[in-house]
Amino acid sequence: MSPRWEPNADIRRGRHVVYHLHAHLVFVTKYRREVFNDDMLTRCEEIMRNVCTDFGADLIEFNGEEDHVHLLVHYPPKVALSALVNSLKGVSSRYLRQEFTGRVNRFIMHGRFWSGSYFAGSCGGAPLAIVKQYIEQQKRPL
């Protein structure tokens, strides 16, 4: 008897796709200013969770320090990661500047909250060496 296939909750299905895409994102404040306190980090997580939901993505994990935040996002293949990032940074910047005016205006210059750059790393699944080995083993003899 063959082993029964167990569904993995992390593997999502679309109409024509099965996917398991995760990205580790890091956003840094403009000039690495130490803006965040606990209240701002809590609100930033809430805002970013809502943005992810709007994109059909899930914010799996969120944390940060005074000058940056880390996100682990599970997203569908129809979403361009750059579009998700732009929305996460834009929406959070707008809300945080509105809701924490005094604190943000002391630290942020020229109306920018986030640095223009960001880190995005793919993660999850097997290590690259294992994937490479698997693909190599799929070769058909000629």
Q: Give the beta-strand count.
A: 6
Main β-sheet description: 4 strands, antiparallel
CATH top level assignment: Alpha Beta
Number of domains: 1
Total helical segments: 4
Assign the CATH superfamily. Transposase IS200-like
Question: Uncertain segments of ≥5 residues (pLDDT<50)?
Answer: 1-5
Strand content is: 25-35%
Radius of gyration: 19 Å
Span between termini:
33 Å
How does the SSE layout of this entry go?
Blueprint (H helix, E strand, L loop, with lengths): L11 E2 L4 E2 L2 E8 L8 H17 L3 E8 L2 E7 L6 H19 L1 H7 L6 E10 L4 H9 L6
Antiparallel strand pairs: 1-2, 3-5, 3-6, 4-5
Helix pairs in contact: 1-2
Please characterize this protein's 3D structure.
This protein has 142 residues and is α+β, with helices and mostly antiparallel strands. The chain has one domain: Transposase IS200-like (Alpha-Beta Plaits, 2-Layer Sandwich). The protein is 37% helix and 26% strand. The protein has a four-stranded antiparallel sheet, covered by helices on one side. A two-stranded antiparallel ribbon has the order 1-2.
Descriptive key words:
single chain; 142 residues; alpha+beta; Alpha-Beta Plaits; 4-stranded antiparallel β-sheet; two-stranded antiparallel sheet; 37% helix; elongated; disordered N terminus
Short overview:
The chain is α+β, with helices and mostly antiparallel strands. Helix content is 37%, strand content 26%. It has one domain (17-136): Transposase IS200-like (Alpha-Beta Plaits).
